[in-house]
Structure to design on (297 residues):
C-alpha cells in the first residue's frame, strides 16, 4: 500500500462516495474503485460496507483510515519541509471557510496575500464550522476558520471577530416593532436555521434549551441569503450574526437586537498545534492575523 492509495482511501472515507472522491482527486471512478478493491485484497479485509448507493467504513476500514491519515500527514510534513528548504516563496495552502464567513472577511485579505506571494496557491473549502474544525484537527486542511472556543483538542487559534446574534423577523411579526427581544419570547415561533454541521445551529438550540424551550425548526440551509429569504416570505424567524445582518438589504425583514441571553459569535483562525506548518501556511497565519486585526479591531 503506497501514499497515493492511502490518499484515495482517505478521500473516499471523507466523502462517503467513490464518484465524489474521484471528482475531487481528478481521476476516473473505475480507477478509484479498482484501487480500493486492490487494497482490500492486499490487506485481506473489507474496507467499506456498500449499502445501495451509500458506503460506510467497516470496523477494519476505520482502523486503516486512522493509520493512513497519520502516515499521509507525516509524508506531507516531510514534503512540506523539503519544499521549504528548496524554495521559501512557493507553496499550497488548503483553507476551510464557513460559507457565511468567506465573502465578508476574506476576499481582500486573500487578494493582498496573493500580491505579496504570487507563487503560493490557495485552495478554499466551504463547509460548516464544525466540519472545518474537524478537518483541521485530522490534517485534511492546514488552516481554517471556526467558531471559538473550539471543541477538538490540539488546535491553536487567534480570534478576529466577536459579535452577537440578532433576531430576523418578517415585518408582520408580533415582535417586529420592538427595540429588543428576549430569547424566551420566541418559544412558539418556527425557526429557520443553518444546518447541523454549522456550529451556530448547536449554539442556538443550546441557548434556547437554557431558557426553557426546544425551538421548532422548520427548515435548515447552508446559505444565509436563503435563510433570510425564507424569513422575508413569512415562513419563520432566524438568528444571524451582526456581520450577516449588515449584508441584508431586504426591506421585507426586520432586524432586532437579542437580549437575555446575548448569544456571542466569536470567529478565529485555527491550525494544528503539533503539526509542522509549511512556510506558506505560517506566512498566511501571520499575514491574516495582522490584516484581520487591523480591519476588525
Amino acid at each position: 500500500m503506497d501514499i497515493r492509495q492511502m490518499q484515495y482511501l482517505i478521500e473516499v472515507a471523507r466523502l462517503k462516495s467513490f464518484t465524489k472522491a474521484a471528482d475531487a482527486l481528478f481521476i476516473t471512478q473505475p480507477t478509484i474503485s479498482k484501487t480500493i478493491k486492490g487494497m482490500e485484497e492486499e490487506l485481506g479485509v473489507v474496507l467499506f460496507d456498500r449499502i445501495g448507493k451509500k458506503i460506510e467504513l467497516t470496523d477494519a476500514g476505520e482502523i486503516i483510515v486512522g493509520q493512513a491519515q497519520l502516515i499521509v500527514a507525516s509524508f506531507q510534513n516531510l514534503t512540506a519541509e523539503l519544499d521549504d528548504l528548496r524554495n521559501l516563496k512557493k507553496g499550497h495552502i488548503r483553507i476551510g471557510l464557513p460559507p457565511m464567513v468567506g465573502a465578508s472577511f476574506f476576499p481582500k485579505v486573500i487578494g493582498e496575500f496573493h500580491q505579496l506571494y504570487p507563487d503560493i496557491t490557495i485552495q478554499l473549502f466551504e463547509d460548516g464550522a464544525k466540519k472545518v474544525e474537524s478537518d483541521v484537527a485530522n490534517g485534511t486542511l492546514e488552516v481554517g476558520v471556526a467558531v471559538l472556543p473550539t471543541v477538538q483538542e490540539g488546535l491553536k487559534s487567534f480570534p478576529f471577530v466577536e459579535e452577537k446574534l440578532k433576531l430576523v423577523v418578517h415585518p408582520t411579526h408580533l415582535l417586529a416593532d420592538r427595540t429588543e427581544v428576549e430569547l424566551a419570547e420566541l418559544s412558539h415561533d418556527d425557526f429557520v436555521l443553518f444546518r447541523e454541521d454549522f456550529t451556530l445551529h448547536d449554539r442556538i438550540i443550546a441557548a434556547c434549551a437554557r431558557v426553557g424551550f426546544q425551538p421548532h425548526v422548520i427548515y435548515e440551509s447552508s446559505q444565509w441569503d436563503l435563510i433570510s429569504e425564507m424569513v422575508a416570505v413569512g415562513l419563520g424567524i432566524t438568528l444571524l450574526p451582526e456581520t450577516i445582518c449588515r449584508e441584508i438589504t431586504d426591506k421585507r425583514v426586520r432586524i432586532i437586537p437579542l437580549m437575555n441571553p446575548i448569544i456571542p459569535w466569536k470567529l478565529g483562525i485555527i491550525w494544528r498545534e503539533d503539526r509542522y506548518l509549511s512556510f506558506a501556511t505560517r506566512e498566511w497565519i501571520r499575514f491574516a492575523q495582522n490584516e484581520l486585526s487591523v480591519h476588525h479591531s
About this structure: The longest strand covers residues 155-169. The mean pLDDT is 90.
